[in-house]
Amino acid sequence: MATSNYEGKKFQGNSASKTLDDLTVEEALQININGKPFTITMRTPGDDIPLVRGLLHSEGVINDLKFNPDIILKKENEDGVLSVVNLDIPEEKLGRGYTNSRSLLSVSSCGICGKIELEDLSFMGTIIEEKESIDIGTIHSMFDKMSELQQSFQKSGGSHAAAAFNSNGELLSTMEDIGRHNAVDKVVGDLIHQGKIKEASAITVSGRISYEIIVKTFKAKIPILCAVSAPSTLSVDYAKELGITLLAFCRGDRATCYSNPHRISIDNINSQAG
């Protein structure tokens, strides 16, 4: 299925309640060519055969439009979701894109796309255990501050933004870029240059949340990540595992927390959520 149910804690005004939302599934697909790992791409399961064929065409891996190799399932997980495919491609049908899997366009927007094997996705690190809480009203004010400084977006409507704040909601850094992942990287880099990376308690982003932004947030050891749009299933799974408080659909006086809600407080709370 393309979506999966996830429980969250929905904040609206001065109240909080439990919610059950459908989130888009995000999973890794490993592509093997001639029995050897070639690359990994993140995708929503389904229509994997046209995805693989289209990707290999756009990246110049297969140089013949009339050639359609058999795309063979090599491994499934317990839910039957395809995780590895294998293709047999004659050498004369391989284009220049085959010689450098890291040249894939997907690398520019995905933290794990372009890696060679699924085992490469694991990384070591201590989970974030920061216990300091931030009021939901402060979270909303962070988005107001970020929005006011989105000068490129105000002119073009075509850029993303990210911003970092301390626990009092004071702005530490904000950046824009055409890529949402790049905006996060710019903020982290700016915090490092300023010597303020350890002051950052929350990061806000203007787009949706997928796996790679969770990883960037985790590596920066920022405990709270907030987004205007939806998270993917994989991002929620990893946020829970890594100790990140993940809020999404942060619009107006609303927000939904999908992991580690203990860091979010609310004044005069009227809560139905445990």
Structure notes:
- This protein is of the alpha/beta class.
- The protein folds into two domains: 3-23 and 126-271, 3-Layer(aba) Sandwich (Cytidine Deaminase, domain 2); 27-121, no CATH class.
- The protein is 23% helix and 32% strand.
- It has six helices and 15 strands.
- The protein has a nine-stranded mixed sheet, with helices on both faces.
- Helix 5 (211-219) links the parallel strand 10 (202-205) and strand 11.
- Helix 4 packs parallel to helix 5 (211-219).
- It starts with a strand and ends with a strand.
Characteristics of this structure?
alpha/beta, Cytidine Deaminase, domain 2, 2 domains, 9-stranded mixed sheet, 4-stranded mixed sheet, 6 helices, 15 strands
Brief write-up:
With 274 residues, the protein is of the alpha/beta class. 23% of the residues lie in helices and 32% in strands. The chain has a nine-stranded mixed beta sheet with strand order 9-8-10-11-12-13-1-2-15, sandwiched between helices. The chain has a four-stranded mixed beta sheet with strand order 4-3-6-5, with helices on one face.
